[in-house]
Amino acid sequence: xxxxxxxxxxxxxxxxxxxxxxxxxxxxxxxxxxxxxxxxxxxxxxxxxxxxxxxxxxxxxxxxxxxxxxxxxxxxxxxxxxxxxxxxxxxxxxxxxxxxxxxxxxxxxxxxxxxxxxxxxxxxxxxxxxxxxxxxxxxxxxxxxxxxxxxxxxxxxxxxxxxxxxxxxxxxxxxxxxxxxxxxxxxxxxxxxxxxxxxxxxxxxxxxxxxxxxxxxxxxxxxxxxxxxxxxxxxxxxxxxxxxxxxxxxxxxxxxxxxxxxxxxxxxxxxxxxxxxxxxxxxxxxxxxxxxxxxxxxxxxxxxxxxxxxxxxxxxxxxxxxxxxxxxxxxxxxxxxxxxxxxxxxxxxxxxxxxxxxxxxxxxxxxxxxxxxxxxxxxxxxxxxxxxxxxxxxxxx
Amino acid sequence: xxxxxxxxxxxxxxxxxxxxxxxxxxxxxxxxxxxxxxxxxxxxxxxxxxxxxxxxxxxxxxxxxxxxxxxxxxxxxxxxxxxxxxxxxxxxxxxxxxxxxxxxxxxxxxxxxxxxxxxxxxxxxxxxxxxxxxxxxxxxxxxxxxxxxxxxxxxxxxxxxxxxxxxxxxxxxxxxxxxxxxxxxxxxxxxxxxxxxxxxxxxxxxxxxxxxxxxxxxxxxxxxxxxxxxxxxxxxxxxxxxxxxxxxxxxxxxxxxxxxxxxxxxxxxxxxxxxxxxxxxxxxxxxxxxxxxxxxxxxxxxxxxxxxxxxxxxxxxxxxxxxxxxxxxxxxxxxxxxxxxxxxxxxxxxxxxxxxxxxxxxxxxxxxxxxxxxxxxxxxxxxxxxxxxxxxxxxxx
Lengths: 397, 397
Hints:
The structure is a homodimer.
Chain A: H1 7-14, H2 42-48, H3 63-72, E1 77-80, E2 89-92, E3 98-103, H4 125-137, E4 146-152, H5 154-158, H6 164-167, E5 171-172, E6 178-180, E7 194-195, E8 200-207, E9 217-221, H7 235-238, H8 242-248, H9 257-271, E10 278-282, H10 312-317, H11 322-330, H12 338-347, H13 360-364, H14 368-375, H15 379-395
Antiparallel strand pairs in A: 1-2, 2-3, 3-8, 4-8, 5-6, 6-7, 9-10
Helix pairs in contact in A: 4-12, 12-15
């Protein structure tokens, strides 16, 4: 377990997060936590149980109360998360738990404009939720828990925020909906305002990881990062032997990092995420630890087209972790079809009552018949690709 | 007729427009114009025939060649029109004619986001085209002729432009379409790029009016201008007796200005244009002249909802020009249903071959059954409103 901090230390340090805690102290509960984990709120239990191998346990009894609180707990503070390119809010709960809110910006059945580059795409609240479920189904448990929630933008954001820059951007739309747009570098303008109906807004709430002052993280640039340019290609797109260089480069030359990376690639392929430019690990665990699968808002943008290039690392390195491979095989069996398992899993999210979190075309799109035949090039991979394809077609058909 | 300039003077002065003429001189034809109007290109004939009463004649034989040239003539220059809020290009033809190009930005059947204020709406190329037809059908002839055209963004813009700022914004989209976004204050960014398929782009081309140095224009602020604020109301929205003030204010106190204004209001209502903050007249004709109906790109944004507030001037002043009234009555007869006349008229536009210029919901939306009953307040107007409503329902059902 993360366990490099005692509860007391943790508690004391938690109050160092004042920058993003803005409500008056009365809004918060009195804290009566002891070393007994039964006295801890779910978010603290979650933090203390993060291990070198995963964020939470298989069948973790803490998951249900944790996501329940994300979805229902009273919100005592809402401020903008600084530094992001798109609008995000940090929400605080009376028990000092915090969550990152991403608002709904696009209708669920809208597809990302095919002329947009991946780096200009909207972030989607339902992608954050669905990514958490998919990551868990794949057996990774590397996405921090996320729950959907219908937020009252007046009561739960506008009325309680102490963030003046945010408050200033609220307005009532011509049809009487309450809208806001915040301040950020992309899409924070009146044309891209986020609007309640009339004040209820769908959002994803992701539990915050331990503060960086308590559990520092290391950021790694993905070796298969895209160029983030409309005209340049990345090295991996032009060098046929790119993987052999990566395999010799630390930390990919030792331990499990390369197969950890492939795990992430499979997740990204299945959800169509092209935006994995970096990933993070907990500093304390060194190189021998899992990769955090953070920031999945640009996944699930298109159901009518897959992006085979996301699988390039797998294709080029021809490596996959055995347990992942077995999991994919399991999910290819008729009784565990990935699309069915996903549908069932998403059913448990509170927002499911409002509308299905992934539209059926997303669950039902058949990637195999489209792109696979063409992109199978390396003979060794054909088998794997065809099987993966099989699995994928099962998840998506 | 406009006739305050001789052809020679006109021709000489035309070359003063160098700022927006950028192609090399060889691209242009040798000019052999005389005082005989048969020697003039259609655009010059159009300019010279502008009168105090209208832009062109009823059954004007020059209209067909003029719109034909807009739609098919070789483009020798394309530069950005400076000063606008949204992307517009000035296109030049070998015979020194010029046109204002507005590109297609929205799919035809998309409706403007109902949370957007009118002043944040996109401009629509098909609205410019449809407005020209509707204005002509209403018998006004106050919109400069517009034709649709499928433009090759590579050959007809990128390859020939001398506008470096424009050229710099071209790129190829992920699916291989050629896109550009230009420089302007709204929607000129990579997320809002205008894209060919793969290089053919629908656009509207409106013939340019005589240069301001030849025929200066006066700009009038609309007395029923909206507030252009998300929170403030305009005077006309709160003062019940607003019209009586306007009626006493020059130029609305004399001549035909008030009924000219009502003509514009009826046009704007029928096409759902809330963005008529100003209008223009030709200076030379003083106050006793028609109003130019320029800039109609924000019309036809919604077919599922009418905006009765556009009719406020009519409601408040209870005035309408007799010929307009008779025209509306004519267009209410089964054999001249406005929707049918519009459909037939739009059929003649070259872009009609690509796709209908107004989607059927636009032609078929039934405004009457929706908003009219509620907004009928002034008893004197009930009759008029009901009849107008009748007409409108005919045009829209």
